[in-house]
Amino acid sequence: MKYKVAIDPQAKMDIKEIFTYVASNDGKQIANKLIDNLETAFYKLEKYPRRGHIPPELIDTGIKSYLEIHYKPYRIIYEIERNSIYIHAILDRRRNIQEILQIRIIR
What we know:
Layout: E1 4-7, H1 9-26, H2 28-43, H3 56-59, E2 66-71, E3 74-81, E4 84-92, H4 97-106
Parallel strand pairs: 1-4
Antiparallel strand pairs: 2-3, 3-4
Helix pairs in contact: 1-2
């Protein structure tokens, strides 16, 4: 079974912010390659949606519907619903992930 990947508007903002930051620091070519690689990583979820794990910050909350995969320093946080994968966040692991997840998911 192949799943459909959908990108949440907030995750699209994450991608835009990552691109802007990397382009300004390392150049547009490197930023484009990074975004391509991130997209490749999350589109692989179409075939292997359960390969991720529950983000450690969510384990104690009892929220088990969110999973994550990693690409370099980035964490791709997603949810599986029926035949769809919803990408909710693409975050640099060096940021305060606990705080970001509380704002976006735990509320």
